[in-house]
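Proteins fold reproducibly. Look at a sample protein:
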Amino acid sequence: MVTTSISNIKSSLATLQETLPNFQKYLKAHYSRVMNVSQWGKEKVYSPNDLLDALQNIITALTYLVEDSLFYHHLSLEVKKNIQERLLQLTNDVKNFSLSNIITSLEDIEQSLSPYNQYTDLKSMITLQQKKDELSKQSEHLTHILEEAREKERRINRILNVASEQAETISTKKETIATLLKQSKAAQEQLNSLKRFGNC
């Protein structure tokens, strides 16, 4: 069931995803020489590239979260409300290139999820989903190969059936010919007997 909060989160995620290209351009324009230098966050753990990765990870994680409604409903109402509010704020901060506020919103969302081990679980879910997608593709490929093999088997069976039917037909004809030859021989013998009797 799609609830109002799920719809709101999906809408914010879509908007946030749309804002990332411009935000990336902004970072490259202003921090091109230090894209991998950690400089933001409580412990200075975020570089510009880290920040982009963190935003994409949050989008991916929350997308999987709302896709699994049972998983989402395990969260408390307070956490759901906080995620909606922070995600909306995060989207606006990214639009406005407000770096300090972006960090705050990111860390707050992660903190809201961490007591429930949800953020860790979500990252595990992402890995699991990626593996499931990979296995699904492999399964589809194997299914295709199996279907091709079955089709070839059906064709071979049809050829064998035709060959078998032709062999049976040939065998029947041979038996018919043999019977006719016997009948012809018997008739010839009778004719010869009649000729001999006539000569007497």
Observations:
- The mean pLDDT is 77.
- DSSP finds six helices and no strands in the chain.
- The first helix runs from residue 4 to 31.
